[in-house]
Design brief:
- This protein is of the alpha/beta class and 460 residues long.
- The protein has two domains: 190 residues, 3-Layer(aba) Sandwich (Rossmann fold); 214 residues, FAD/NAD(P)-binding domain (3-Layer(bba) Sandwich).
- Helix content is 30%, strand content 21%.
- The chain has 16 helices and 18 strands.
- A seven-stranded mixed β-sheet has the order 3-2-1-4-18-17-16, sandwiched between helices.
- The longest helix has 16 residues.
- The protein is globular, with a radius of gyration of 24 Å.
- The structure holds NADP nicotinamide-adenine-dinucleotide phosphate.
- The site of NADP nicotinamide-adenine-dinucleotide phosphate has 25 residues, from helix 6.
Length: 460
C-alpha cells in the first residue's frame, strides 16, 4: 500500500465548518508538505462563518480575513461542499469511512443561559439572535425585535455586547453604507430606543471589552456615554491587577471609562449607560419584559480570580428590551463526544477524546468548539495549527487504506443541493451587485432558497 500522504494515496481530510478555524485548519494541511485533499463541509450554502455572520457590519476591517480564506479555497486540493449539515444530511460514521481524518471546526452556535425567571419573556433576546438578524443569517432572518421600547438593557460586558450596543445606538446614516442586512436597517430606522444600559456583574476593571471596542462607544454620532464616577471606585485587588502585565488591557478600559465619566452630557438622542457590579435576578413583566430586577454585587477573591457575590441589595430598572450577551456554547453532533456543561467537544491537543479520556483515532477539533468562545479571529490560526500538528503527527498511525473522499458519500447523492465554491462565487457576485445599487459593499442574500435560486437563474 502506498504511504499515506503520497500522490497515489493522498491524506483525505474532512473539515466541518467554513469559519475562520476551518479555513486555518485547511491552510495548515495544504502547507504540510504531504499530498492532501481537503473537503470542507458547511451547513449554509455560503462560507466564512462568523466573519460573514458574526463580525459587526460597521467593522469592515475584520472582514479582511476573507481574501485570505478565498485564496485557500481556490487551491486545487481544496473542495467546498456547502448546504450540507453533518449529523443530519451526512452521518459522522459515513464521513469517518470516507476520510482518514475529520476536523470539527464548527464553532459555538448556541448561547449560555442566565437561568433566571422571566428569561424567555417577550422582549428578551439573545445577542446571537440579534447579531444573526442584522448580519442576514438565514436562521434569524425572520426574527423581530421590539424596537418600540425606549429603554434597552444588555447583560454582559464583552465585545459582543459592545457590537449590540453600537448597532442599537448608531444612526441610520452611520450604518447605511455597511453590509448590514436591509431588513435590519429598515427596522432600526424606526427604533425608539433612547437609553441603553450595558450591565456587568463584576467591576469596571473586569469588563471584557477590548479597549478599541470600548473607546468606539464614546465616538458615536448621536449617543452620549454615561458612567457614574461612584461606580469607578476600585478595591485593592483590582488595583493590584493593573500593576501586572496581564492587567494592561483592563487598565486601559478603566482609563477610557474614567474619561467617559468626566464627560458632560451633550443632549444627544441616545444614551449608553455603563453599569457595574449588578447581576440580573429576574426579568419581570406581564408576558412582555417591563423591568429587570438586579442585585448589587461585591467582588470576592484574589486578583485575577475575583468573582461577583450578591450583597442582597436589590436594584430595579424599568426596561422593555433585554439582550443577553453572556457568551456562546457549542452544540452536539451525533457521533461525536460532547461536553454539555462547557459546550465543547472534549479534546487533548486537538484530538477528540471519549468520556474515559481516550483519544478517538481520526477525530479532531479546532476553534471555538475545541477551546470555547474566546479570542479574536486570528486566535483561531494558532489553535488550528496546533490541531493539524497533532493530526500530522498521527499520520503514521492512522489507517492508511485509500479513502474515497466526497465522491464516495452516498448520502450526498440523494441529499441536499451541494453548493461548490464556484457556486458561492456566483452568489457572491449577486450580493455585490445588489449592494452596489444601494451604495453598500454587498447586500446579503438572507434566505437559503434565495441563495440556491441564484444557481439556477440564467447568468447575465
Ligand atoms: P465574553 O467576552 O466572554 O463576555 C461575556 C460577558 O458576559 C462577560 O462580561 C461576562 O462576565 C458576562 N457573563 C457571563 N455569564 C454571566 C452571567 N451568568 N450573568 C451576568 N453576566 C455574565 O463573550 P462575548 O462578548 O460573547 O465574546 C466572545 C468572544 O468573541 C470574545 O473573545 C470576544 O473578544 C470576541 N469578539 C471579538 C470582537 C472584536 O474583536 N471586535 C467582536 C465580538 C466578539 P464575567 O467576566 O464576570 O464572566
Amino acid at each position: 500500500m502506498s504511504s499515506l500522504g503520497s500522490e497515489p494515496n493522498p491524506l483525505r481530510v474532512a473539515i466541518i465548518g467554513a469559519g475562520p478555524s476551518g479555513f486555518y485548519a485547511a491552510e495548515a494541511l495544504l502547507k504540510s508538505g504531504l499530498t492532501v485533499r481537503v473537503d470542507m463541509f458547511e451547513r449554509l450554502p455560503v462560507p466564512f462563518g462568523l466573519v460573514r455572520h458574526g463580525v459587526a457590519p460597521d467593522h469592515p476591517k475584520l472582514k479582511e480575513a476573507i481574501p485570505v480564506y478565498d485564496r485557500i479555497a481556490r487551491a486545487p486540493e481544496f473542495r467546498f461542499l456547502g448546504n450540507v449539515t453533518v449529523g443530519r444530511d451526512l452521518p459522522v460514521a459515513e464521513l469517518r469511512a470516507a476520510y482518514h481524518a475529520v476536523v470539527f471546526s464548527c464553532g459555538a452556535e448556541s448561547d449560555r443561559r442566565l437561568g433566571i425567571p422571566g428569561e424567555d419573556l417577550s422582549g428578551s433576546y439573545t445577542a446571537t439572535e440579534f447579531v444573526g438578524w442584522y448580519n442576514g443569517h438565514p436562521d434569524f432572518r425572520d426574527r423581530t425585535f421590539d424596537l418600540d421600547q425606549e429603554v434597552a438593557v444588555i447583560i454582559g460586558q464583552g465585545n459582543v455586547a459592545a457590537d449590540v450596543c453600537r448597532i442599537l445606538a448608531k444612526t441610520v446614516d452611520e450604518l447605511k453604507h455597511t453590509d448590514i442586512a436591509e431588513h435590519a436597517l429598515d427596522a432600526l430606522a424606526g427604533s425608539r430606543v433612547r437609553d441603553i444600559h450595558v450591565i456587568g456583574r463584576r467591576g469596571p476593571a473586569q469588563a471584557k471589552f477590548t479597549a478599541k471596542e470600548l473607546k468606539e462607544l464614546g465616538e458615536l454620532e448621536d449617543a452620549d456615554v454615561l458612567v457614574d464616577p461612584a461606580e469607578l471606585v476600585l478595591n485593592p485587588e483590582s488595583l493590584a491587577e493593573f500593576e501586572e502585565r496581564k492587567g494592561a488591557g483592563a487598565k486601559k478600559n478603566f482609563e477610557i471609562l474614567q474619561a467617559f465619566a468626566a464627560r458632560a452630557r451633550s443632549g444627544r438622542r441616545r444614551r449608553v449607560h455603563f453599569r457595574f457590579l449588578l447581576s440580573p435576578l429576574e426579568l419581570q413583566g406581564d408576558r412582555h419584559v417591563e423591568r429587570v430586577l438586579l442585585e448589587r454585587n461585591r467582588l470576592s477573591g484574589p486578583a485575577f480570580e475575583q468573582s461577583a457575590r450578591g450583597t442582597g441589595e436589590r436594584v430595579e430598572l424599568d426596561a422593555g428590551l433585554v439582550f443577553r450577551s453572556i457568551g456562546y456554547k457549542g452544540t452536539a453532533i451525533e457521533g461525536v463526544p460532547f461536553d454539555a456543561r462547557k459546550g465543547i467537544f472534549p479534546t487533548r491537543d486537538g484530538r477528540i477524546v471519549d468520556s474515559t479520556g481516550a483519544v478517538i483515532p481520526g477525530l479532531y477539533a479546532s476553534g471555538w468548539i475545541k477551546r470555547g468562545p474566546t479570542g479574536i479571529i486570528g486566535t483561531n490560526r494558532a489553535d488550528s495549527v496546533e490541531t493539524v500538528a497533532s493530526l500530522l503527527a498521527d499520520v503514521a498511525s492512522l489507517d492508511a487504506g485509500e479513502r474515497s473522499g466526497a465522491d464516495g458519500l452516498g448520502s450526498l447523492r440523494h441529499g441536499p443541493r451541494v453548493v461548490s465554491y464556484q457556486d458561492w462565487l456566483v452568489i457572491d457576485q449577486a450580493e455585490i451587485s445588489r449592494g452596489q445599487r444601494r451604495g453598500k459593499p454587498r447586500e446579503k442574500l438572507t434566505r437559503v432558497e434565495e441563495m440556491l435560486a441564484q444557481l439556477t437563474a440564467p447568468q447575465p
